[in-house]
């Protein structure tokens, strides 16, 4: 079973009326935790790498880890997906290395040197996206496109302006590009710092888009829930370092600021204040699970999750190092980190409704998918 295209995953999800989690990965522990959960719950799976993940791990290393997982978990139908491919060349590279799906993010101009990337025009988005679609489909590989722009930060880049997806433009975009699924902007946001209060996700917009292009699975980006119990836990852990200045004066470093110790070696009052009243993470909220479930009821089939995985890993590592500060073997804290990812993914699979559906898949090869695209 194992390796399939994104189109196969999402078409089957459309038949069953459920969503499939698309989990971003950077290392072995994340991949193992995600696959362990999918195997236990007999769920299809999408694992994806952003281009910053590729830069971190190395494309060949990351691709090899993904392929190893595919071989190790043969009962899990899985698509290997490039998340937010910025241009044709990088999508092409991933296709050549065996990814079964790529996203071309034609909504933003990644060539801009500005940190907040300007939006491309509709016409330019169509041109960039269609170029990737034509190439990918010639190899049987699926393509995700995006129309509209989200708030927040993705891989150190942000949109200069948030623009919700126009339902009528979505119809024309799909018609002109031939994408297999469409990422829509409906009020979700990239990154950890999504919202200061509970967000309002535009489910009515999802309904309208789905009614106009019912054959195209929709994608929700920026859909981590950022649980308060995790952010609160992170803020309760205090990480400090100690040192001496050029004159030998002792200090404590906390959150990048040096607090010098008084002559009588009592700790400065401002350090005590900051330890109790400053947070590592700003107050933030994510996308409520019930909003995602409403989206699934109205045509959302792929749900992107990244930040929640990062939070689970970080809190698990801090749990170990806080309880047993003498530990220095990475296996002592990366094993709990892997287990934390596993538990997070299990919860998402159950919430999205994909548990038990692995058996529904009858995989097609890329060669078969190539013939399918040639015939349509």
Task: Write a structural description.
It is a single chain. With 376 residues, the chain is α/β, with parallel strands linked by helices. Helices cover 45% and strands 18% of the residues. It folds into 2 domains: 6-225 and 283-375, TIM Barrel; 238-277, no CATH class. Helix 2 runs parallel beside helix 4 (59-72) and helix 9 runs parallel beside helix 12 (307-323). Residues 191-195 have low confidence and may be disordered.
Q: What order do the helices and strands come in, and which of them pair?
A:
Elements: H1 6-16, E1 20-24, H2 28-41, E2 45-50, H3 51-57, H4 59-72, E3 78-85, H5 88-96, E4 101-104, E5 116-117, H6 122-137, E6 142-147, E7 151-154, E8 157-159, H7 167-177, E9 181-184, E10 189-190, H8 203-212, E11 218-220, H9 228-236, E12 240-244, E13 250-254, E14 257-260, H10 269-277, H11 289-297, E15 300-305, H12 307-323, H13 330-352, H14 366-375
Parallel strand pairs: 1-2, 1-15, 2-3, 3-4, 4-6, 5-8, 6-9, 7-10, 9-11, 11-15
Antiparallel strand pairs: 7-8, 12-13, 13-14
Helix pairs in contact: 2-4, 2-13, 3-4, 5-6, 6-7, 7-8, 9-12, 12-13
């Amino acid at each position: 079973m194992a390796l399939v295209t994104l189109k196969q995953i999402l078409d089957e999800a459309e038949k069953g009326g459920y969503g499939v989690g698309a989990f971003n990965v950077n290392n072995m522990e994340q991949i193992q935790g995600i696959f362990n959960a999918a195997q236990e719950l007999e769920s299809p799976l999408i694992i994806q790498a952003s281009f910053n993940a590729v830069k971190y791990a190395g494309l060949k290393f990351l691709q090899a880890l993904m392929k190893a997982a595919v071989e190790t978990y043969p009962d899990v139908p899985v698509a290997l997906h490039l998340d937010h491919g910025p241009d044709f060349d990088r999508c092409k590279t991933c296709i050549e290395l065996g990814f079964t799906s790529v996203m071309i993010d034609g909504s933003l101009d990644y060539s801009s040197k500005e940190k907040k990337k300007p939006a491309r025009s509709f016409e330019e988005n169509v041109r960039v996206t269609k170029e990737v679609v034509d190439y990918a489909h010639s190899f049987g590989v699926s393509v995700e496109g995006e129309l509209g722009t989200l708030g927040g930060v993705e891989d150190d880049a942000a949109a200069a302006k948030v623009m919700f997806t126009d339902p009528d433009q979505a119809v024309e975009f799909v018609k002109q590009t031939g994408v297999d699924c469409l990422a829509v902007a409906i009020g979700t946001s990239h990154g950890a710092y999504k919202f200061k209060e509970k967000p309002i996700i535009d489910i009515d917009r999802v309904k309208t888009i789905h009614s106009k292009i019912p054959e195209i699975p929709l994608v929700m980006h920026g859909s981590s829930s950022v649980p308060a119990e995790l952010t609160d836990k992170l803020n309760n852990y205090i990480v400090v370092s100690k040192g001496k200045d050029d004159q030998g004066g002792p200090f404590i470093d906390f959150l990048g600021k040096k607090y010098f110790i008084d002559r009588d070696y009592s700790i400065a009052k401002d350090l005590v204040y900051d330890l109790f009243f400053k947070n590592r993470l700003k107050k933030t909220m994510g996308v409520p699970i019930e909003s995602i479930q409403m989206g699934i009821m109205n045509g959302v089939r792929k749900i992107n999750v990244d930040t929640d995985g990062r939070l689970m890993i970080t809190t698990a590592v801090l749990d170990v190092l806080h309880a047993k500060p003498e530990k220095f073997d990475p296996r002592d804290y990366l094993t709990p980190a892997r287990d934390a990812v596993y538990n997070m993914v299990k919860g998402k699979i159950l919430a999205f409704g994909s548990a038990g559906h692995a058996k529904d898949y009858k995989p097609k090869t890329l060669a078969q998918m190539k013939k399918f695209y040639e015939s349509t």
